[in-house]
Amino acid sequence: MQESPFLRACRRLPVSRTPVWFMRQAGRSLPEYRKVRADVPMLEACARPDMIVEITMQPVRRYDVDAAIYFSDIVVPLKAIGLDLDIKTGIGPVIADPIRNADAVKRLRELEPDDVPYVTEAVGRLVEELDGRPLIGFAGGPFTLASYLIEGGPSKNHEHTKALMYGAPELWGDLMRRLSRITLEFLKVQIEAGASAVQLFDSWVGALSAEDYRASVLPHTSWIFEQLGGLDVPRIHFGVGTGELLGLLSEAGADVVGVDWRVPLDKAAQRVQPGTALQGNLDPAMLFAPWEAVAERARDVLDRGRAAEGHIFNLGHGVLPNTDPEMLARLTHFVHEQTEQ
Ligand code: CP3
Fold this sequence. Notes:
Blueprint: H1 5-10, H2 31-37, H3 42-45, H4 49-62, E1 68-69, H5 76-80, E2 85-88, E3 92-95, H6 102-106, H7 117-130, E4 135-140, H8 142-151, H9 159-167, H10 169-192, E5 197-201, H11 210-216, H12 218-228, E6 235-238, H13 246-251, E7 256-258, H14 265-271, E8 277-282, H15 291-305, E9 311-315, H16 325-339
Parallel strand pairs: 1-4, 4-5, 5-6, 6-7, 7-8, 8-9
Antiparallel strand pairs: 2-3
Helix pairs in contact: 4-7, 8-9, 8-10, 9-10, 10-12, 15-16
């Protein structure tokens, strides 16, 4: 079988068409998702193979996307090692006892594959069902996980996180090392079960200056990517508001850098290291505009994407909950039609 356009673009090989998938393609924008989730809390859904398989497949059935993304959440491995946390609708992850001292950090134990048997089972079933279409595994990046743990929930300014990062560098290092090991293990479980690419969502690193990112986050993320290096699975690295960090996100060892909508892809291509493909970057809010405007912008993303060594079409961040699925269907078709060789 010919290797998929998605994996070929990750590897910077010529493609028969520009591959496309959407971050958060599964979820509240789909009525079929709202239906199956109606009586099942988010974290319970993430621990049930039947739910994981169904929700992962829903967007694949609806859109002709070139990859599926495993249905889970970045806090699932933290829940699996026993942290008292929940995902609240409209808010996000909420942690009962925020982690702000050495005792709390020391309680963060390693993740074992046996902690997440449902991941192994669901990935295996998905690979079978997807029949050659790649499955993307994912995990949260260390800064983003740390921010949820330290703040206790979503945060605009990350003030407690930065207080710990600047004020207690050794404790910060210990926390980052522990989170990196958990993330690495969570990704490895997905890869060993058959995921064919992985994405590290360090969504909130854009809160840091390049200098602080280099000193306090990059060494840990580099370690994760290095450990994954021998597994022959493309590594995608994504964050929001990372215009100033794009070079460092690729330096960390990613094969593909995900770009939000703030930096045009031709400019982003100049900022990443040679040998890096790009993923992105239509503004997700753009999908609320009339189709003609969407098509014009999508064409612009494709044109600028040609400056990259490989381009995977995506949004600049996740699909917004009120997005009309019809828009995503049209957009997927449009990207394929415009780029078919
Ligand atoms: O389709 C996919 O992309 C796969 C599923 C996925 C989810 N979360 C499911 C989810 C992925 C890749 C994530 C990653 C994730 N989770 C990130 C990184 C990606 C990003 O958007 O930057 C972050 C920061 C989180 C933390 C988190 N979990 C947030 C901010 C939220 C949204 C809160 C809300 O209700 O607005 C969640 C909950 C969540 N994760 C939902 C889904 C489908 C919504 C849950 C629901 O249906 O109520």
